[in-house]
Structure formats: C-alpha cells, structure tokens
Amino acid sequence: MQEIHKVCIIDDDPIFVFGLQRFLKIAHLGDEFIHYPNGKLALEGLRGYHEEHNSLPDLILVDLNMPVMDGWQFLEHFGRELNQEGQLVFIISSSIDMADIKRAKKFPFVKEFVYKPVTSEKLKQLVAKYSDPVV
Predict the structure, then answer these.
(1) How are beta strands 6-10 and 88-93 bridged, if at all?
(2) Rounded to whole angstroms, how far apart are CA atoms 4 and 47?
(3) Domains in the chain with CATH codes
(4) 3-state class of 31 per DSSP?
(5) What is the DSSP string of 82-134?
(6) Which three-class secondary structure state does DSSP give residue 24?
(7) By C-alpha distance, which of 119, 69, 79, 68 is closest to 103?
(8) Against a cut of 0.70, is the pTM above it?
(9) Cα–Cα distances in Å, from 46 out to 99, 101, 109, 118, 128?
(10) Which of 59, 75, 120, 127 is 20 to 30 A from 86, comparing alpha carbons?
C-alpha cells in the first residue's frame, strides 16, 4: 500500500476535521495534516506547498459545501493549476444527490466520492485500492 504521510483536509467543520484526523491516525494514514476551512485558502496553501516541495500532499480530502469557495470551485481550479499524475483526491461529503456523484466523475483526478460519516477502515480500503502494488 502507498504510504500516506501528508494529508490535506479541506472542510469547514472543525469537529469533523478533528474526528477525521483521529481516524486517519488510527488507520496509519498520515502523520502530518494540513487543514483548510475553504477552497480558496486550500488553493493558496497548496500552491505554496507545491512551490516549496515540488509535490503535493499524499492524500487530499475535499468537502463540497463550504463558505468562500466550495469544493466544486476548488476542484475546477485544482484541475487546471495543480493536479499531478497519480494524485489521490477523495470527495468526502454528506450529499447523497446523484447529480453530485455524476459531477464528481467529470474530474478524472477525483478517485472516490465518500459519504459522511466515514470510518478509518473505509479510508484505509480506499487508499489501498489506489495504491501502487509493492514490487
């Protein structure tokens, strides 16, 4: 399974983010976390991160409904400016609207649409699904 060290969480709910970080630690998916409460701050932060490290976090988790810049707007900009081959991006949302699921498929870098609440086991399974096999 691909090792996940750096995780970026883009979500405006601090309680959800706190719980998600605990789940990720339990699943050994991340030892360093970056949190942004909206897409605008995430784009700015990830641009700076990319300039400094010439890479992006190993896993990016995006909520859809946020103030300032929502998840859809973030994904549009991310796809044009920052997307890298093999980047793991998951949408994590409470939306069960089929239109949202269809819309997510328009972004080839979005690997999964995950429903809230999410468990550490579910995240671990999804990361394993998209990891390169060990050679």
Answers:
(1) unpaired
(2) 20
(3) 10-118 (3.40.50.2300)
(4) coil
(5) T--TT-EEEEEES---HHHHHHHTT-TTEEEEEESS--HHHHHHHHHHHSPPP
(6) helix
(7) 79
(8) yes
(9) 28, 25, 16, 24, 24
(10) 120
Tokens of 104: 């997510």
Q: Name the E strands within 2-104.
A: 6-10, 32-36, 59-62, 88-93
| Coil/strand/helix, residue 68 | coil
State the amino acid at position 48 in one-letter form.
Answer: G
Beta bridge partners of 115: 93
- Say which residue the tokens 């994590």 belong to: 92
Give the total residue count for the chain: 135
For 28-37, b/e burial (b = at least 16 CB within 10 A) is ebbeebbbbb
